[in-house]
Fold this protein.
Amino acid sequence: MEDLNIAEILSEDGRVRFRYARYLSEDGTRWIRHGRFEAYHVNGTIASEGTFVHGVEQGEWRDYHPNGQLAATGAYENGEEVGDWQFFDESGAVSEDPGEQ
């Protein structure tokens, strides 16, 4: 594996929209996410955080509402959601899975 580098993808107003570690594929044609991943809301607060392992989500992930409250928490294994995910409304109260509404 090549050396990791940190990518920062900016929004039109210059704020960081995505920040993640990545490495270049062996054939040099694409970047592969590997390590910490963060996405940000337009207002600059964190929207999502987790880890990629060789291009797929792995381990614990957290999503947040624009007001900073936790929106969802759960885990991935080899890019697939596993186990029970918890969802929260903007006040922090437990809510239903948005996919089941």
